[in-house]
Amino acid sequence: MILKQILFIILISSNILLANNESNTQKNNFGFLSTFNILDDFKDARSNLTTWLEKLGEEQNFSVNVYFYKDSKKILDDYNSGKLDLITINYYSFFENKSKLEAISSRYWTITYNKEQTYKLCLIKNNSVKFNSFKDLKEKSIILRKYDDHGSIWLDYQSLKSNNKTFKDTLDLVKYEHNESTSLLSVYFNKNNLALISEDTWNTMLELNPAISKRISVFQCSKIDFLPFVSLFSKKVKNEDINTFFKISDNMRNEEKIKNIHELFQFEKIVELEKDDLKAIDNFYNNYITLKKKYE
User: Fold this and answer.
1) Termini Cα distance of the chain
2) Pairing label, strands 86-89, 269-273
3) How far apart are CA 32 and CA 89, in angstroms?
4) 274: Cβ contacts below 8 Å, ≥ 6 apart
């Protein structure tokens, strides 16, 4: 998982460098909010990534400056002031500041992990545990993926609807883990009663070992598809540069410098987001905020 997060930034930065090379642009400043991401825990990983990008920039005669942020307000302030050309943030930060970000951003994008472009979250349970509804969260233990704001909010929404209080106030124990397969195995061996993982992880693990279904099962998956993150281009970035970025993204498997990175990262593709693509997620967040205020 650590490797995948690092490779993602390398891949995107490589795209920017190649786009710069085609459009003769000199520099891009890329802001990355690391508090929703595993890179927040690993200073050496951030340092090694920066060194790699500097070397790649020297080869291309262009530069991409990558800035890691722990404070969502700081990255948004720098983006708003024009210090950053491109940012990657978690969706909740985008949602909370949507009107301001829409005013200064031209185009959005994210990544998909499968051809269907789905990204659902699933609550799995150990089959020996009584769990028939979200009311049964009481006195249970759960393991969540660290930095997954979607997962925490989706679970919170379900708990507020069923128990009139947050999942943290309902569950007996909440633990966090970087790796979803580790979370799944924790439930398999009944070290934790429940885990929240992506549907892709569940399907992959089930395909690798169908026997796991004898001891664990999916209780419920989210009805909507979330986004791993949202990235935004500033309006000050030339549209031709952005078009080049997406063109390179579509052909990245054929780019010698980055095709191996793409294969290691194991995602399907980079996709541009339209406003209609965000309606379902926005509706969910609006409903969640309304419900949360009701029980505060």
Assistant:
1) 35
2) unpaired
3) 7
4) none
Strand partners, 142: 174, 194
Q: Determine contact, residues 143/175, Cβ cutoff 8 Å.
A: yes
| 22-64 tens-digit pLDDT | 555 556 788 888 765 444 444 554 555 555 555 545 555 556 6
Beta strands in the chain (DSSP E): 27-33, 63-69, 86-89, 105-112, 121-126, 141-145, 173-177, 194-198, 216-221, 230-234, 269-273
pTM surpassing 0.90?
no
**Which residues neighbour 72 within 8 Å (Cβ) at sequence distance 6 or greater?**
33, 35, 89, 90, 93
User: What is the rounded CA–CA span in Å between residue 134 and residue 293?
Assistant: 20
Helix (H) or strand (E) holding 55: helix 43-60
Q: Which domains does the chain have, with CATH numbers?
A: 2-114+227-274 (3.40.190.10), 121-224 (3.40.190.10)
